[in-house]
Specification:
This protein is α/β, with parallel strands linked by helices. The chain folds into 2 domains: 175 residues, NAD(P)-binding Rossmann-like Domain (Rossmann fold, 3-Layer(aba) Sandwich), CATH 3.40.50.720; 82 residues, N-(1-d-carboxylethyl)-l-norvaline Dehydrogenase, domain 2 (Orthogonal Bundle). The longest helix has 22 residues. Its EC number is 1.1.1.35.
Length: 281
Amino acid sequence: MKLTNTTVLGTGVLGSQILFQTAYHGLPVIGYDISDAALQLAAARLDSLVDEYASFFGDPAKAQAARASIQLTSDMAYAVGDADLVIEAVPEDLKIKEETYQKLSSFAPQRTIFATNSSTLLPSDISPFTGRPAQFLALHYANNIWKNNTGEVMGTADTSSEAYEAVVEFAESTGLVPIRVLKEQPGYVLNSLLVPFLESASHLLVNEVADASTIDTTWKLGTGAPYGPFEIYDIVGLNTAYHISSHGDETSKKFAELLKTQYIDQGKLGVATGEGFYKYN
């Protein structure tokens, strides 16, 4: 079962990176989003990734060719009509995912495998909406895919071995290092390590122990890490941080409220919008 024609549902920060990573490794790929306005933002993100890939891999011509090959559409029927693999990267909201998969299953061919990139929801939470549980699993990407190239593959009790191995092969063919997650685990491997770290930082901020810049500086000086937790929040995107924190304990919910009122409502979503906890060119 070789997966060639790929569709990515959701063209936000990570969805756009998945599109570019797939195209850069020579596979045809279509990006779907719900409106022309969303697709205009996606086009700008994809344009900005040309320089990232050209610099990292040292092949500007290949980066330009990858960008030129990516199709964008707001027509789901067209986007998935000939897809071997659909990678879902819509917001971390179970209701949105339910609506997306119910629509998707009516358009996609029976052969199509569905993979969620959800960071926080288990695939088994989503599987009942897909209409094809044996052909559904998770393929989780890290941000800045071209250099942080893990591909965490996690199935459910219903996922067929054929679908699982096909997605592992797809991950390898698109420049990822497949991480075989042997059983369902909220947060997979990467986020099981990362989320508690970020949560600890958010609690320090909400409890007024230190400000964001001080917390970041302390972590970087004390460990030699390239990024502090609030720089990571900006990279991941504050919308994602908000969705995760709003389902946590009382302190996490206070952090979610802080994100909403002081950042998200002001259009400050992190690196993607040029400002979050920090300002970016």
